[in-house]
Amino acid sequence: MSGADDAAPPRAPAIPVLRVADLRKYYAVGGAAPVGVANYVHAVDGVSFEIGVGETLGLVGESGCGKSTVGKCIMRLVEPTGGSIELAGEDITRLRRRDLQPARRQIQMVFQDPYSSLNPRQTAETVVGEPMLVHGTASGRERKERVSALFDAVGLRPEQMSKFPHEFSGGQRQRIGIARALALNPKLIVCDEPVSALDVSIQAQVLNLLIELQDKLKLSYLFIAHDLAVVAHISHRIAVMYLGRIVEMAPKAALFERPLHPYTEALLSAVPLPNPRAERGRRIILKGDVASPIHRPTGCHFHPRCPYAFDRCKRETPALRPVTNGHWSACHLNEGGAGSQPAFSGMTAATDAAP
To answer: Which of 39, 193, 199, 246 is most deeply buried (CB count within 10 A of its CB)?
Structure first.
């Protein structure tokens, strides 16, 4: 058991709608493994967090870090290898499919691709109303009226209900996906890169719509993305993933003002500034590539690319620990505990230490 497993899961400030503890998802693969021995892709490796009522937790990281797999495990679209998932206090990790149906009313998903996530043979009205039909929450005229109200809520005209998905733009299709997610009055919506396939001007409209719906309906979001600027617009707290693990979690303002993990620091240095002449620490170019999730580095997975790495980083896995109030980091340079002065001081140090 690695040191990361010993840390208590970070606590959200609000009453938790979702609690994830030590979530793991491993995929067996073939290849060069000896006969009878399986290699495993450690897609998610001990992830823990909570989301409160009306809160948005942004989950960010580069492609392949495991963030979308976290969302699919929470939705039970893929079965987790280990850990627990609690929705409104109920453990749904091992529920059988027929027992899972009541929980599915409380948690819905908005998918990344608004083109492939809608059935092209169904009208928009059927797409949005289908969850009510499956779960038996509304039928006939009541369902039609409910779909009409949902169209209005997401900024679409009820007269468009009879159209098919190909008759809508990309942004409109994503609004249909949001309306479908709202059909059962869920408490939590998992948003898996919901704006990455949209034009930048449309992204802002969809993000603002999600914020308005959250304020009105007291929704909670797990917002998965790779774009820090997008996550900053909608999130209250942000968790940063690297190679299957959360390496930092903090309130949005604290994370952007003072990152406490070298990987977060590198991500923030790559965010474009509105004023290209604005002063900021030198752009951090990480050396090497992301390690294989099958053959992971020992100790801290980030150490081969980290400009601050020392010998202990190669041997011991840093636990995700509280460094300051509400700010968690998995870095040996920040192990003084809550209230102490971290040894890693963020963007200032980066100017001198980056290669």
So the answer is: 246
8 Å CB contact between 230 and 207: yes
Given a cut of 90, is residue 155 above it in pLDDT?
Answer: yes
26: containing domain: 3-106+186-353
Domains: count for the chain: 1
**Position 158 in a domain:** no
Whole-model pTM: value is 0.87
- Using the 8-state DSSP alphabet, how is residue 130 labeled? H
**Angle of CA points 332, 336, 338, to nearest 5°:** 120
In a domain, 300, yes or no: yes
Residue 298: Cβ-neighbour burial (10 angstroms; 0-12, 13-18, 19+) = exposed
The amino acid at residue 199 is D
CA 6 to each of CA 179, 298, 321: distance values in angstroms, whole numbers, following the listed order: 40, 17, 10
229's tokens = 């600027």
Q: Which residue has the tokens 């709608």?
A: 17
- Arithmetic mean of pLDDT, 193-216: 93
pLDDT in tens, 211-240: 999 999 999 999 999 888 899 999 999 999
